[in-house]
Amino acid sequence: MKRHLSSVLAATLLLGAAPVWAQGTDASIVSAAEREGSVTIYAALDASEALELVRGFEARYPKVKVDYNDLSTTELYNRFISEAAAGGGSTDLMFSSAMDLQMKLVNDGYAQPYASPERANIPAWANWKDQAYGITAEPIVFAYNKRIVPEAEVPKTHADLAKLLAEKTDAYKAKVATYDPERSGVGFLYITQDMQADKGTMDLIKALGKSGTKLYTSSGTMLERIASGEHAIGYNMIGSYVRERQKRDPSMGLVAPSDYTVVMSRIAFIPKAAKHPNASKLFLDYMLSAEGQKHLANRSIGPVRTDMAADAELVPASARPIAIGPELLAYMDQTKRLKFLKDFQRAMQGK
Question: With contact defined as beta carbons under 8 Å apart, do 42 and 95 qualify?
Fold first, then answer.
């Protein structure tokens, strides 16, 4: 479903303390962006989570209107491909947590390079040839309902979760939630990252299937059902969303697995067909700036900048960032993708 952030925001809506200008943004880009007057963004980030970021940008650059479109990862990808095929131009900026789908678009030649002046402040794994930028650093975690899961049973590793579900199948029957990798772009990414990180992942999938794990496409739905008690545990949840939920729900628990914690980054790129390329560059710079990253961090979305501190509980020593690059395309091959999904379905069925 498409949702827009209101773009009628007064220049006086400066957020928090005196802000810092985006480091080194070329004055000619700022002027050209203001002449363009708007930037259209397709993003797989809830509008409510991006509101402070967009308000901050429009307060900083009141002559540039933001048209923010909140889409699911699969919808975002399909819409972009469809519009590109029609040849009429598309969005000005693509921003998604489905890192593999984003990288496929970049690899297929849809992105234009831009050497952001902020790139010196982000790690090497978060920049690919100045075409694809990682904007966030968000761990993939376990979520659980503290009212239902005894402290002694809270899984600390992926192996712990597999063991818990194998040994207490009846107690956790239909009480676990995770993404459906067939219908969710991020779900497919996270489970295939687990496959690459841990040879025991297929055993975990079998335990998930044995316990009647429910599959979803929405983080919000899973968190609601964990909070309500319908489910007790969420596997491969986006840590920033879980942390944000904890702010208003003390019963929500979070574990960054100590064996390894996958850290995803929402990838942004500027399409070659962008109608407002300078406004795109300006918004990209702002997202990567200390000010933009602070706005995201205020919504529990981990900063990617190397000069900003991360939440130690969310990004532990076991952090395993997903590097931005062609390696993300490993499971984009249709034959390999279909084989994995078939293996996943068989494992979920206990075969």
Answer: yes
67 has which bridge partners?
40
Say how many C-beta atoms besides its own lie within 10 A of residue 283's C-beta.
28
Sequence-separated (6 or more) residues with CB below 8 Å from residue 48 = none
Between CA 220 and CA 242 the distance in angstroms is 9
| Pair 130, 269: CB distance under 8 Å | no
How far apart are alpha carbons 346 and 344 in whole angstroms? 5
Bridge partners of 65?
Answer: 38
Most confident range (mean pLDDT) of 15-19, 78-82, 317-321 is 78-82
Residues 324, 335: Cα–Cα separation, whole Å: 22
CA distance 139 to 321: 8
Q: How far apart are CA 347 and CA 4, in angstroms?
A: 40
What does the angle CA 228 – CA 234 – CA 235 come to, to the nearest 5 degrees? 175
CB 2 within 8 A of CB 69: yes
Question: Could you please report the per-residue DSSP string of 33-82?
Answer: HHHH-EEEEEESS-HHHHHHHHHHHHHH-TTSEEEEEE--HHHHHHHHHH
What is the pTM for the complete model shown? 0.85
User: Cα 188 vs. chain centroid, distance in angstroms?
Assistant: 13
